[in-house]
Amino acid sequence: MIREDAVMKIGVLALQGAFVEHIRMLRELGLEAPEVRLAHEILGLNGLIIPGGESTAIGKLMASYGLLDPVRRFSKDHAVWGTCAGMILMAKDTGRNQAGLGIMDITVERNAFGRQIDSFEENLTVDVLRDGHQRPFPGIFIRAPRLVAARGSARVIAYLADGTAVAACQGRWLATAFHPELSNDLRFHQYFVDVVCS
Ligand code: GLN
Predict the structure, then answer these.
(1) Can you give the pTM of this predicted structure?
(2) Does 110 contact ligand 1 (Cβ within 6 A)?
(3) pLDDT class of 57 with cuts at 50, 70, 90
(4) Residues classed as catalytic
(5) Whose CA is nearest to atom 1 of ligand 1?
(6) Is the CB of 143 under 6 A from ligand 1?
């Protein structure tokens, strides 16, 4: 018999943005992926994903739903991954005065590549992924932020061809400027589950 606690549960913050797509990817990997809107829904999770969307909207909603402190506390001993707007929320330094989690020792620049119409795709070499060196990961950038700096134990794990840093990890925390959940490539979700949540 499979014990209930043997199934890994990765919650997806479901206040705004691309949460459904993350849930689809996690389910494809055979995990439970509950939607998180209230603080008590974090209890019992192995990890949490903060999706892309609009970081100002998500930050304000997290503040008014009383989620900022509970997620910060959760992050002390659990895995948390922010994609795009989620990466902005994960950063200690955004150079702006906006509500966020401020978990990772990274500096980000919001909307660093221009407007919505300047969105783009670029194949990325991400060594930490399975076959990462041979098989590029399709990076989908939608009005994306960039990483300006990674300090302390935070390290950059993906760059664009022009040298712009676009993903970082720090212990159990992960931040990607792009949207793996909009690709058909499960490797980033697999990495989060295998390495960061383990
Ligand atoms: N531009 C958005 C922001 O600053 C992020 C866009 C996204 O998540 N795709 O919050």
Answers:
(1) 0.95
(2) yes
(3) very high
(4) 84, 179, 181
(5) 143
(6) yes
Range list of β-strands (E), the chain: 10-13, 35-36, 47-50, 79-83, 91-93, 104-109, 120-124, 137-141, 146-150, 155-159, 165-170, 173-176
Domains annotated on the chain, with CATH? 10-197 (3.40.50.880)
- Residue carrying structure tokens 């407007």: 115
Bridge partners for 169 per DSSP:
155, 174
Q: What φ, ψ does residue 180 adopt, rounded to 5°? A: -60, -25
Q: What digits encode the pLDDT tens for the residues 91-148?
A: 999 999 999 999 999 999 999 998 888 899 999 999 999 999 999 999 999 999 999 9
pLDDT confidence of residue 198: 74
For residue 59 and ligand 1, the question of a CB distance below 6 A is answered with no
Residue at 81: amino acid letter: W
**Rounded Cα distance, 46 and 56, in Å:** 26
